[in-house]
Design brief:
Collagenase (Catalytic Domain); 2 domains; alpha/beta; globular; single chain; 48% helix
Length: 285
């Protein structure tokens, strides 16, 4: 499960949004013909084709108690569906055995939310995924595939979650947990680390340190969407003359070992060449 949070000290910068958003209000369907066309499109292209339900009208069961959300605007739904198809579905369809794997493992529900998820404890949830069953895309109303920060948030969420289906069905690669065993934190402590701290431990993100399962999913996700993955996580800095640089290079060595184990595992248990899948994704960025 993927949950990304902004903590209280950052909330002040976005608190003014509350005055302009109608939270927990249903979508107003003023154009019934357009809504009908949209629903027909969803039924034909997602539900019938993949068995995937698209939830874009607000229903309170899609969020937890204490969370405040805004539904997506009607105008944002179709562009978001095009984004999902282009960046998530189609890359799988283009690689060997990708179609079979996708169709066999696609989540039953995709939930679209217009903004971020505001929590009673003063945090903001940027994206969530419920392993194997539901993926929730937030901030849909701000859709802009050319905005790298917006795009990467969506791709990290969906690639991370879909990677969970692999270890859920086929377990982790052999001895994966032993590659960086002392680097793991816990579900409630990972957010105290910086990106640099995580790299020194041999992880692509602080969240990856929370468990071996999350480490696996984060490594897959970053490998697929991060255009700078090689320079950040694979290639050692030359001529290191300080301890921080040495520690980061040692972390990259661990990440290389993890990625190789993951690539071999994907090929063996899913029939998908992860290098080809990355190439299909990167060709769209």
């Amino acid at each position: 499960m993927k949950k990304i949070l902004i903590y209280f000290f950052m909330i002040l910068s976005i608190s003014s949004c509350y005055e302009n958003e109608e939270l927990n209000m249903p979508v107003k369907q003023n154009d019934s013909e357009l809504t009908s066309e949209l629903d027909i499109y969803i039924e034909e292209n997602f539900t019938e084709r993949y068995g995937m339900a698209i939830r874009y009208r607000y229903v309170d069961r899609y969020v937890n108690p204490g969370e405040r959300v805004t539904p997506p605007s009607l105008e944002a739904v179709r562009p978001m569906l095009d984004f999902i198809e282009n960046f998530w579905i189609n890359p799988y369809l283009e690689v060997g055995n990708g179609r079979a794997f996708f169709e066999d493992n696609v989540p039953a529900e995709i939930v679209l939310l217009g903004g971020l998820i505001y929590n009673d404890d003063g945090t903001v949830t940027l994206g969530t995924a419920d392993a194997g069953a539901q993926i929730t895309f937030t901030n849909v109303n701000a859709i802009d595939p050319d905005d790298v920060a917006w795009r990467d948030l969506q791709l990290q969420t969906v690639y991370h979650e879909f990677a969970h289906t692999v270890h859920q069905q086929f377990k982790l690669p052999n001895a994966f947990e032993a590659i960086s065993p002392r680097g793991y934190t816990s579900a409630g402590a990972w957010f105290t680390l910086t990106d640099e701290d995580a790299l020194k431990r041999g992880f692509v993100s602080p969240y990856a340190t929370s468990s071996p399962n999350e480490d696996f999913a984060e490594t897959v996700a970053f490998y697929l969407f991060d255009q700078d993955f090689m320079s950040k996580f694979m290639l050692e800095e030359p001529d290191c003359d300080n301890q921080d640089c040495i520690d980061e290079n040692n972390g990259r060595l661990l990440i290389r070992s993890k990625l190789q184990a993951i690539v071999d595992h994907y090929e063996k248990v899913t029939g998908i060449n992860l290098l080809e899948l990355r190439a299909a994704v990167q060709s769209r960025l």
